[in-house]
Amino acid sequence: MADRVVETELTRGVRLTSVKAERFKTGCLSVTLLVPHTKKTASLNAVLPYVLRRGTARLTDMEALAAAMDDMYGARIEPAIRKKGEVSAVGFCADFPDGSFLPGRHDILSDVAYLTGELLLTPATRGGRLRGDFVASERQNLLDDIAAEINDKRSYAGLRLCENMFRGESYGVSKLGTAAGASAVTAQTLTAHYREVISTAPIEVFYCGAEEPERVAGVLREALAALPRTGSFTVPSTSVRTAFRGGEKIYRETVDVTQGRLIMGFRLQRTMEDPNYAAMAVMNALLGGSPTSRLFLNVRERLALCYYASSALDRHKGALFVSAGIDFDKFDEVHGEVLRELEAIAGAAFEPWELEAAKRAVVSSLLASLDDPMGLEELYLDRAILGYRSRPEELAAMCELVTAEDVAKIAADARLTHTYFLTAEGEEC
Amino acid sequence: MLKKREYARVGETAYTGSTESGLRLTVVPKPEFKRSMAFLAVNYGSVDRDFRLGGRLYSTPSGTAHFLEHRLFEVEGEDNALTTLSKRGADANAFTSADMTAYHFQCTDSFFENLELLLKFVSTPYFTAEGVERERTIIAQEIKMLEDDPEDVMYYALMRCLYERSPLRESAAGTVESIGDITAETLFDVHRAFYIPENMYLTVVGPQDPKRVLETAERLTDGAYRELPRREYGPAEGPLPAEVSASSQMDVGAPMFLAGAKGRAGLSGRESVKFELTATLALSSLLGSATPLYRELYDAGHINETFGYDLENAGGYSTLSFGGETQKPEYVCMRVLETAADLAARGIDPAFFARRKRTAWGSALRALGSFENMCCNIAAGGFSGYDYLDTVDVIDSVTEEDVRAFLAEYLTLDRCAISVVTPANK
């Protein structure tokens, strides 16, 4: 039997999606502000929930907050920063043991909801501003996080590609913003930003757990009662460019690595005029999003050129990324092979079983997410931002209807605009 | 025969039994889920490099267990098993740790067909020289990827400080050099030795009929008696580290460290669970995010949210560790050890300790929410000799005195080693 999903407007611009499911041992609650992701505000957005998580007017430091969460049997309420196209999804994600397993105390949802509301609405302040010492320390942590982006070479290559590929577009800015932007954060600017977003941003609230949706709505209404609300609460949009001219730009950067990291960035162009999300997901699975994909079976298994070669899709921006970890001298070979695979798909030169396997991969992953509260949370957040109405089950049913032509058309529209290669000093390619 | 047991405290029911061939299995029915998971674990990991079987001593290269895991998906005359499982929409994968190799899938459809294939391909070796050669280049790329991962580099550098001889010193994937010595024959040897039903454990979590799982496993496992290999880990190591510090330079944003110590060696069964929970409670009471020490170091800017701790039981040893990004690795490490001595001497506030236990109970419950965690823990318990679903009660038995004794014994300067990664000079 399908879970009961109830969507409610809690107050102006605040929408609750409540999934009633009794099979999970832990409940999940998230409160997410949807604000535009721009170069100017990215660092403010990224630092905000961390500053709020340092203390509230009542629980003035991390130790007091931790003690309160210990009392909720180790409930976790963690800052969450996600970049969804050109939207910063900023807020808190909580998970907590389901009340029915806890000795004596059952109403853990209320505790978690009130504390989340408290973190969001009554931060620790001094002289009417967010505390300067908290802001200074979280600004430094953010700067450290930005500096640490290089630690993971695969994702670093992705960030550098985006920076070059989307120069002049907000999408090119990392979800943490830039070091310059982070350095400029002060208690004054952050307080002003906080006041603005808390009153104007549309807010998505998600709950999955054993409680009745009506009760969840009541608890959250109370927990968020002090939320100031002004404005029209439209979900920020992502600019999508649908036509490109000119050739591919290739960037190389040398760092101290033993393996080269290749990443190729494609724009989906006309596909994004009327995006068919189901077909996009199936195309990605067929190209490099599953173990039956062209990239996995050919670039890894047949040619043994790498350990990973995969593709990923940003449905918000209409971009496709192919990444692989390769020997420094295999750049041309892998780059050429990726283009050949994409061309084959564009020409519908793939077997029916490949399309079927790609559909199975997407459908199974959607259906499996129904059994995973945090997976569901992500799906419903994407849905709110992309503005489509289908639920995960319906999206899965739409994937079944995707044809070879649908998939070929998306591949044919994909245009390689930028390639980035992280290599080592002295390695020519 | 399957034995049913209810675990009221955690709201679980499990059916446990074994096939005629000796394969042990547990089914945790979850009728209300669409998704199922099957997890076939082999009590064989990267530390099991040397072993005796049939009077012969086998010494295998570092990375052999992991290499075998990669190659085993190959099926003679048919698609690779990963391809077949994926074609049916199953999300399949495998991993090799220090003391376990596991093959698993999750699916919402065709469960028993997938289970049959899992049992078949894991017990049917098919290795060709050409396939082994191709895999060598793929795994070499995996190793190079790991060599660029500062946390992986830092972890194994710490293990090489702590251990003098144990294979825990080496990456589970081996090195580009060591895997050069692996042949199809090596793989046949270790498969014959370790991949026998008595040395494996099957766990299924999902809306499946336990009896049908047992019947399937019965049909697909070979009942012929085979001798179990005897693992050779060499002479036991003493409690002190072989080296006190290690440092590497890499392209990282900020310095990071991992400090650690050897815990108690040679534990098994519920004793090892109690030790692990004692260690976890001790570390969370000492340096978890709710402690005064965490707040002191965080407020002073010496640590950030990467700061954490771990306890790992593998290869006959337990290893405790803590660390994160910091500009002052030695200072943070010293503050941890000073505070440990202080807590061990003064004791832990009873209300605080009660909260730590409550949180430990919450984490235990959370771990049960993940099918993969549950399967892996049930199998690990099966190999070590305890019933995982029954271990939440062990939390109750850990006392404040146990935690103090742990801090006094293991969190000391002479026991600890530190591994640091610093940014390379450009």
What would your notes on this structure say?
The complex is a heterodimer of chains A (429) and B (426). With 429 residues, chain A is an alpha+beta fold. Chain A folds into 2 domains: 4-223, Cytochrome Bc1 Complex, Chain A, domain 1, CATH 3.30.830.10; 249-423, Metalloenzyme, LuxS/M16 peptidase-like (Cytochrome Bc1 Complex, Chain A, domain 1). Chain A has 15 helices and 13 strands. In chain A, the strands form 3 sheets. Chain A has a 6-stranded mixed sheet, with helices on both faces. Chain A has a 5-stranded mixed sheet with strand order 9-13-10-12-11, with helices on both faces. A two-stranded antiparallel ribbon of chain A has the order 6-7. In chain A, a hairpin with a 2-residue loop joins strand 1 and strand 2. In chain A, helix 9 (277-287) packs across helix 14. Chain B folds into 2 domains: 12-231, 2-Layer Sandwich (Cytochrome Bc1 Complex, Chain A, domain 1), CATH 3.30.830.10; 245-423, 2-Layer Sandwich (Cytochrome Bc1 Complex, Chain A, domain 1), CATH 3.30.830. In chain B, strand 5 (50-53) and strand 6 form a beta hairpin. The longest helix of chain B is centred in the first third of the chain and has 19 residues, at 129-147. Chain B is globular, with a radius of gyration of 22 Å. The mean pLDDT of chain B is 95. At the A-B interface, helix 2, strand 5, helix 4, helix 10 and helix 12 of A face helix 2, helix 4, helix 9 and helix 11 of B.
